Amino acid sequence: MNKFNNEAYRALVGDLINDAFYLEGASRRGVIAKIRQYAEVIVRKILDLSPNDTVELGNGKLQHKISERNNPL
To answer: What is residue 9's DSSP assignment?
Structure first.
């Protein structure tokens, strides 16, 4: 069962890409924050995470899912 819903993130991804790459006058810190948020959506898509799952550095469950994805056997 797919937990990730493309439609739920479509508007968010559009806004993040626009703000990170096309918005004039944005601070570097703001651009980096938008790219980090976009990376979180990509990680959610790759790992098929639901919106209720947290994506945090050091999260043991997340690291386990990543290692399972890297070593499917």
So the answer is: H
Quote the CA–CA distance of 11 and 63 in Å, as a whole number: 28
Distance CA 33, CA 31 (A): 5
State the DSSP string of 20-31: III-TT--HHHH
Quickly list DSSP for 17-69.
HIIIII-TT--HHHHHHHHHHHHHHHHHHHHT--TTS---TT-HHHHHHHHHH
> Using one digit for the tens of pLDDT, what is the confidence trace for 3-20?
888 888 999 999 999 999
Q: Is pLDDT of 72 > 80?
A: no
